[in-house]
Amino acid sequence: MKELQTGQPFKNDLPHFKSFPAKFGGPMKPSTGNPAPGYRKHPGHRIEAKPAKERVRVTFNGEVIADSREAIKLEESGHPAVYYLPRKDVKMDRLIRSSHRTHCPFKGDAAYFSLMNGPDNAVWTYEQPYDEMSVIKDRLAFYPGKVDSIFAARE
User: Fold this and answer.
1) Of 30, 34, 114, 110, which Cα lies nearest the Cα of 74?
2) Can you spell out the DSSP letters for 69-135?
3) Residue 97 forms beta bridges with which residues?
4) Coil, strand or helix: which one is 145?
5) pTM (two decimals)
6) Which pairing describes strands 55-60 and 63-68: parallel, antiparallel, or unpaired?
7) Are 18 and 45 spatial neighbours (Cβ–Cβ below 8 Å)?
8) How far apart (Å, rounded) are the C-alpha atoms in residues 25 and 19?
């Protein structure tokens, strides 16, 4: 696999967050006044967002509906790793925006998509995440139990 070029990482003095390369969503900007409130109550909570070293493919009903070499791998305390894929690498015509919404005190408000002719709320996105999670802005993540597979492998 071709090595990804990186830019200057944002230096964040928060111990719970690790920086990421500029290639993925640009360098993090200083706070815009939208910091994640969850860290005040849970200072030990950790989230690491970094470029995935794997090519990530998502299949549903035997069809590849997402294929990316530019995924972000997010690892969060107490949760399995999640891949966030750029929309350009997802067959958006297979998704239907849902009215479902959830809130995470560390990432922000999530919007959802259902799969066409498939399960409801199978895909989520943070369209206006908290400052610390701007790297996943507008990227899509898939629930493993609602698609056939999420396959990540180094090339």
Assistant:
1) 110
2) SS-EEEEETTS--EEEB-GGGB-GGGEEEEEEEEEETTTEEEEEEEETTS-TT-EEEBSS--GGGGG
3) 113
4) helix
5) 0.80
6) antiparallel
7) no
8) 12
Nearest to 155 by CA among 84, 65, 71: 71
Which helix (H) or strand (E) segment holds residue 49: the answer is strand 47-51
pLDDT at 32: 63
**Whether domain 46-153 has CATH 2.170.150.40:** yes
The lowest-confidence range among 7-11, 54-58, 75-79, 108-112 is 7-11
- Residue closest to 124 by CA, chosen among 153, 152, 104: 104
Where do the domains of the chain lie?
46-153
d(CA 75, CA 36): 16
